[in-house]
Write a structure and sequence with these properties.
This protein is α+β, with helices and mostly antiparallel strands. Helices cover 14% and strands 32% of the residues. The protein has 3 helices and 12 strands. The strands form 3 sheets. Strands 2, 3, 6, 8, 11 and 12 form a 6-stranded mixed sheet that branches. A 3-stranded mixed sheet has the order 1-4-7, with no helix packed on it. A 3-stranded antiparallel sheet has the order 5-9-10, with no helix packed on it. The longest helix has 16 residues. The protein is elongated, with a radius of gyration of 35 Å. The N terminus is likely disordered.
Length: 192
């Protein structure tokens, strides 16, 4: 088909250079429209407005707290709750870091263990919305921990690090000592 079009253009150019009589003697070339098997060019589409992508939630836009839950058989339960205090949506996907701290800001033994239920999934927080991570720990001394006094120093606060971030936000602890060497089980964040 392209050769036919090129040949037609060449024929028109050659006849234009000759006399009117020569042009009348030349055969006429008919160019047919493309067949249905050929795809006509697609005109460019108009741009669609982009929806603003949410960014990761950072300590700069989150406020947090630890909420106590049920207790039983030496176990304690709670939730690490974070709220988007910023002006735009942000997304959490995964587990928080968590380090218990004493009143002076020094580390208290913390052995954070991830649980699979619920596992990581993106949670988008619009301004004012919250996400939570489940916590479980024991108050029963283990190993060489004392039984006649607190098993560990009691934490006053905790440094919670949002997923994929390095800067922590501070949350009050106030939920007593964490035995078992500071072992705390934590779930991934989910919409609260």
């Amino acid at each position: 088909m392209r050769r036919l079009v090129a040949f037609g253009a060449l024929a028109v150019a050659l006849t234009a250079c000759g006399s009117p009589r020569q042009a009348a003697d030349q055969p006429t070339l008919v160019v047919e429209p493309p067949s249905s098997s050929e795809t006509p060019p697609v005109p460019p589409s108009s741009p669609t407005p982009a929806t603003p992508a949410s960014t990761r939630c950072t300590a700069a836009v989150l406020v947090g707290s630890v909420k106590p839950g049920d207790a039983g058989a030496g176990n304690r339960y709670g939730k690490l709750v974070v709220t988007n205090n910023g002006a735009a949506p942000c997304t959490l996907n995964g587990y928080s870091g968590l380090q218990l701290l004493d009143a002076a800001g020094n580390p208290v033994p913390t052995d954070l263990r991830r649980t699979a239920d619920p596992g990581p999934a993106p949670v988008t927080l619009t301004p004012g919305k919250a996400a939570a991570a489940n916590l479980r720990w024991t108050i029963v001394p283990t190993g060489d921990e004392p039984v006649d006094k607190p098993c560990q120093a009691e934490a006053a606060s905790a440094a919670a690090i949002p997923p994929d971030e390095t800067r922590p936000l501070s949350v009050e602890w106030g939920l007593g000592p964490v035995c078992g060497g500071g072992k705390i089980e934590i779930s991934a964040f989910y919409a609260a």
